[in-house]
Amino acid sequence: MLHAFHAKNESMDLRALRVFVEVVKLGGFTAASRSVHLTQPSISRVIKQLEDDLGHRLLTRDHREVTLTDAGNILYTHALTLLGESARLRTALSDMADLEKGELRLGIPPLGGTMFVPLIKRFKSRYPGIELHLHELASKPTELALTNAELDLGTLLLPVDPSRFNSVPLSRDRLMLVTQLESSWSQRKQVKLDELREESFILFPDGYGLNDLIHTACQAAGFTPLVAGRSSHTQLITGLVDSGMGVALLPMSVVHDATNVAVIELTSPSIAWHIGLAWLQGTYLSHAAKAMLQMVKQHPLPSARPRRG
């Protein structure tokens, strides 16, 4: 009975840590209650029990916002590690079965996510019992999710940091200038990056590695891009370009079929957009993850191709 009691308490502790992490991540009890499917009073009791058990106040609440105390910050860091290890343990144990069932948590970029449809369709056709959990995430949130064992595999810009991640190539692409059909640029076959120094740019939200590529290239060309707006949705970006709000730099594979905007080759420099499927260095890979990696090696995503017409 003593061993059973300890096992039950450990399970309860992990659930309490998960509730605590969700409260911190989502910034409050209300949002966390929807995420963990508990009422707000229940969440309050879980947090109070954690504070009583640890002998420290973990959170302060002010106008429905929560702030970590010093003790809470320490717990949050360790809780992420413990929950990550728990997820990896469950994956390893469930993976003792074969590929007839299981799950794969895959991070794909919001920009160009439709490129993954053929790969996903092929994977589901070969492994119908594997449940795919698809998460649309930018590069930096993907890195964090991989580190916290919230994803098995995620899409990152290449090259990855080899001290943290392994990867296999997914697609080789390059950025194109996207502008109004009526603009003077639309009559050109090629445009040098430094010619765009007076243009307003539609970029991406914080966390997108593509922003870093564009900023680095513009700085090397001698200017800082003037930001007119930000979006992670391709159709909205091209719509804003069409409206005259600014220009954009987008991967060819994303805009090669666009009809409402002009797409022109960008030179001096040509900005590469190479992406790969990555996983955390030293982490356990499930059979499902290994199967996906093998499929990517055999059937990589289409690389950049010329515009039609």
Q: Which class do the helix and strand fractions yield?
A: alpha/beta
Strand content: 15-25%
**Averaged pLDDT:** 86
Q: What percent of residues adopt helix (DSSP H or I)?
A: 40-55%
| CATH architecture identity of the largest domain | 3-Layer(aba) Sandwich
What's the order of the H and E elements?
Answer: HHHEEHEHEHEEEEHEHEHEEH
Supply Rg.
23 Å
CATH superfamily of the largest domain: Periplasmic binding protein-like II
Continuous helix count: 10
Name of the CATH class of the largest domain: Alpha Beta
Poorly predicted ranges: 1-12
Assembly type of the shown chains? Answer: single chain
Distance between the termini: 75 Å
Instruction: Please state the overall shape, judged from the principal axes of the Cα atoms.
Output: globular
Largest sheet: 8 strands, mixed
- CATH fold title of the largest domain: D-Maltodextrin-Binding Protein, domain 2
Per DSSP E runs of 2 or more residues, the count of β-strands stands at: 12
Work out the count of structural domains.
Answer: 3
Family: Belongs to the LysR transcriptional regulatory family.
GO molecular function: DNA binding; DNA-binding transcription factor activity
Domain HTH lysR-type: 12-69
InterPro entries: HTH-type_LysR_regulators (IPR050950), LysR_HTH_N (IPR000847), LysR_subst-bd (IPR005119), WH-like_DNA-bd_sf (IPR036388), WH_DNA-bd_sf (IPR036390)
